[in-house]
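#onboarding

Welcome to the new folks! Below is a worked example of what a typical request in this channel looks like: someone posts a single protein sequence, and someone else replies with the predicted structure as tokens. Don't worry about understanding the tokens yet, we'll cover that in week two.

Example request:
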Amino acid sequence: MRTAILIADDDANIRELLRFILQREGFRALEAADGEEASRVMRQEDVALAIVDVMMPEKDGLLLCEEIRRDYDIPVMLLTARGELDDKARGFRSGTDDYMVKPFEPDELLFRVRALLRRYRVVSSEKLQLGGTTVDRHSYEVTVQGESVPLPLKEFELLAQLASQPGRIFTREQLLRPIWGADYEGDDRTIDVHIKRLRERFAPFGASAGFAITTVRGLGYKLEVAE
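Example response:
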């Protein structure tokens, strides 16, 4: 069965272009002209990835992105004519995985689509491989080049959350909620403290660890795997 990708955009020309690009590469393209129609498609179809325009009637792309992030475990790419930093920040806070500005190069869009699909296939795996580091979400064990690295539960869960989608920017709230719970009343800066501890634990391994946790100023954190 072909991988289904949702195109949510009120511009018929953009939908036609994206449909052509995706179908040419063997994907199944599903279309929606506004946010409400996109929500209906999501309920009815097995969508693997959503390409969402920010400015849409009925329900804009940011609200749709928040809905998808809350109810589905699929990647989202925001597509918009806006390229300002503030707009990108709003997009990432809504939970998008990637962000492309119109006009776009078809080859770059396909590259990003394939990268997102690869990243999300990792999410379903019990064992996450980050260069020389293995994170076993079943046994709660972490090893670097076979050497065990004991981690407190919250640090393990934080590492596993970041490692489940390498390259994705997580805001502090997106890390805090699934790990500490929606009713947590403490300061979200606790994420900063735990990130600092994780960096310190893996620093002695240097390049052998095979990954780095990067601060994205004004947004949050992402985990990057060394090439």
